[in-house]
């Protein structure tokens, strides 16, 4: 587009692109509608943001002029190596002259109904496969952050400037958080595997083999006698299960004894332990600290609108829109 007006929070209009004339050929913008499937992940969102910036789908010239070529947002911005066009000639002799003064902009619009399917030979439409609203909101906000992050890094690289401190702190914090979450997922995965092979000691022994998908008959102690097809278990299978059963009985008896001792101790010492303490200061809570939020984003004053103006529609609100375009191809649709 040359100029785009987007309604934010159903109250305020914001204009991106050319602010003087809606047909200013020195303005080139991209209007992106985005939706998230129920299977979408944060890595998918990161890939989608990179794809949007790198796809050569923009044309700066007029439709059908026979001269304009398709370019990407990234290549258009990288063609301007400095703020000064005279320095551009010296630093990048292969650049395209039309990129001098070309104002790039991106308007992002959340549009959940992109994920839909026509039913009954075109008589109805179903919106299956969408992410739930809260997940969609989180992914949308993350997508907008990814777009701005990549543009800010590009801006600082082109202008030979350092990244803002708030940005590097936030990036490092989120990177460490992602690593910690990955470690926790791996830890829980191993725990789940162990749970599958060894039931927790609080489960009564008569219940550990009560799985109708594996067995069809049990004795009075809950020990399996026949498999799911009604066939008696072999001696080898019975011996293996008996070993698991006996080991679990010992673990269960030990668990019951410990539980009884803990209950007795709790009754006798509960009053003394909590005396003089205020709410939230008892037990292990003293050592638990709530997770700290990441450093806040400060795009205003960091990402220069003259470098690339980015505006994001309000999630869950009506998306009022006006835009002017004389370029083409007009529409591209793709999934990531």
Low-confidence stretches: 88-99, 276-288
User: How is the main sheet built?
Assistant: 3 strands, antiparallel
Q: What is the number of beta strands?
A: 10
**Pairing-aware structural class of the strands and helices?**
alpha/beta
- What fraction strand? 15-25%
Number of helices: 6
- Helical content (DSSP H or I, runs of 4+): 25-40%
From the structure provided, what is the oligomeric state, counting identical versus distinct chains? single chain
Quick overview:
The chain is of the alpha/beta class and 336 residues long. It is 37% helix and 15% strand. It contains 6 helices and 10 strands, in the order βββαααβββααββαββ.
Keywords for this structure?
elongated, single chain, three-stranded antiparallel sheet, 6 helices, 336 residues, three-stranded parallel sheet, alpha/beta
List the helices and strands and how they pair.
Elements: E1 3-8, E2 12-17, E3 27-34, H1 42-54, H2 73-78, H3 85-91, E4 103-110, E5 117-119, E6 124-126, H4 133-158, H5 165-197, E7 215-218, E8 224-227, H6 235-274, E9 308-312, E10 321-324
Characterization of this structure:
The chain is 37% helix and 15% strand. The protein has 336 residues and is of the alpha/beta class. The strands form 4 sheets. It has a 3-stranded antiparallel beta sheet, with no helix packed on it. A 3-stranded parallel beta sheet has the order 3-4-9. It is elongated. The two termini are 23 Å apart. 17% of the residues are buried. The model is unreliable at 88-99 and 276-288 (pLDDT under 50).
């Amino acid at each position: 587009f040359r100029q785009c007006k987007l309604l934010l929070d159903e109250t305020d209009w914001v204009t991106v692109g050319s602010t003087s004339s809606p047909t200013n050929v020195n303005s080139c913008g991209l209007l992106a509608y985005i939706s998230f499937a129920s299977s979408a992940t944060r890595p998918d969102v990161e890939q989608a943001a990179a794809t949007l910036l790198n796809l050569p789908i923009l044309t700066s010239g007029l439709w059908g002029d026979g001269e304009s070529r398709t370019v990407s947002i990234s290549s258009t911005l990288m063609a301007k190596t400095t703020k000064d066009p005279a320095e551009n000639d010296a630093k990048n002799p292969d650049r395209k002259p039309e990129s001098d003064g070309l104002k790039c902009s991106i308007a992002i619009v959340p549009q959940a109904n992109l994920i839909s399917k026509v039913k009954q030979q075109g008589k109805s439409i179903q919106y299956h496969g969408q992410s739930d609203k809260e997940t969609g909101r989180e992914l949308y906000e993350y997508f907008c952050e990814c777009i701005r992050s990549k543009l800010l890094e590009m801006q600082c690289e082109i202008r030979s400037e350092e990244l803002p401190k708030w940005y590097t702190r936030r990036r490092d914090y989120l990177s460490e958080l992602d690593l910690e979450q990955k470690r926790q997922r791996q830890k829980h995965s191993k725990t789940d595997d162990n749970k599958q092979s060894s039931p927790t000691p609080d489960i009564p022994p008569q219940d550990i083999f009560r799985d109708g998908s594996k067995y069809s008959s049990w004795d009075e102690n809950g020990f399996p006698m026949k498999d799911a097809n009604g066939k008696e278990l072999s001696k080898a299978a019975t011996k293996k299960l008996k070993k698991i059963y006996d080991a679990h009985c010992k673990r269960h008896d030990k668990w019951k004894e410990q539980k009884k001792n803990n209950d007795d101790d709790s009754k006798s010492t509960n009053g003394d332990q909590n005396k003089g303490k205020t709410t939230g200061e008892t037990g292990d809570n003293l050592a638990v600290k709530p997770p700290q939020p990441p450093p806040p984003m400060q795009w205003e004053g960091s990402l220069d609108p003259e470098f690339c103006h980015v505006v994001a529609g309000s999630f869950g609100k009506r998306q009022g829109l006006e835009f002017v375009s004389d370029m083409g191809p007009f529409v591209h649709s793709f999934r990531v």
